Amino acid sequence: MYKRILVALDDSVSARLALEEALKLAHAADAMLMVACVVSHDICDPVGGVVGEEAGDAGAHRQLDHARDLCERSGVRCGVRCITQIIDAHGASIPGALMQAAQAFDADLIVMGAHGPRGVRRHLIGSVAETVLRSSHVPVLTVRDDQRDDKHDEAFAL
Fold first, then answer.
1. Full domain range(s) for residue 121
2. How many Cβ atoms from other residues are within 10 Å of residue 66's Cβ?
3. SS3 per residue for the chain
4. DSSP bridge pairs for 132
5. What pLDDT, on the 0 to 100 scale, is given for residue 147?
6. Distance separating alpha carbons of residues 3 and 81, to the nearest angstrom
7. What percent of the chain has pLDDT over 90?
8. Contact assessment for residue 1 and residue 134, using Cβ atoms and an 8 Å cutoff
9. CATH number, domain at 20?
10. What is d(CA 147, CA 57) in angstroms, rounded to the nearest whole number?
11. Contact 112, 8 (CB under 8 A)
């Protein structure tokens, strides 16, 4: 069973669902959990436009505060069985920063949300989850938000 689980958070519903799934696994296996949020202090975020250093850090702190609360409520005590960390990508790719964090933590499982683009968009836009899936040397569990509206994705299908 898994003993060291890395959970990657971003500000998405699928990432929050991934955290909930990781908490179940950590509780069942008495595993150590690292909840990580990668920030990039680049001038431009390719998804959301221009970002400032404070905005990225504030969002990461807010996400990790929520993660700590969720850990405590689920019985996975912070500081004992759960640690949280903000990872600065320092200009590197977010998947690369996650892979380095997993290696440093000696993770034997990575859990992360996946937005699940389909059709042409899947081939035109690379995702963090897909890159981690392709390059990870440890198992990766991806969790999707099945409640999201996929009508926009269908417009790109051939």
1. 4-154
2. 14
3. CCCEEEEEECCCHHHHHHHHHHHHHHHHHCCEEEEEEEECCCCEECCCEECCHHHHHHHHHHHHHHHHHHHHHHCCCECCCEEEEEEECCCCCHHHHHHHHHHHHCCCEEEEEECCCCCHHHHHCCCHHHHHHHHCCCCEEEEECCCCCCHHHHCCCC
4. none
5. 63
6. 10
7. 41
8. no
9. 3.40.50.620
10. 28
11. yes
Q: Is the per-residue pLDDT at 151 higher than 60?
A: no
Q: Greater confidence, 56 or 87?
A: 87
Q: How many domains does the chain have?
A: 1
pLDDT level of residue 42 (50, 70, 90 thresholds): low
**Residue in 37, 28, 38 with CA at minimum distance from that of residue 81:** 28
Residue with tokens 């949020």: 37
Q: Are 72 and 78 in contact, with CB atoms under 8 Å apart? A: yes
Kindly report, residue by residue over 102-114, the tens digit of the pLDDT: 999 999 999 999 8
Give the CA count within 13 Å in the CB-facing half-sphere of 45. 15
pLDDT value at residue 123: 45
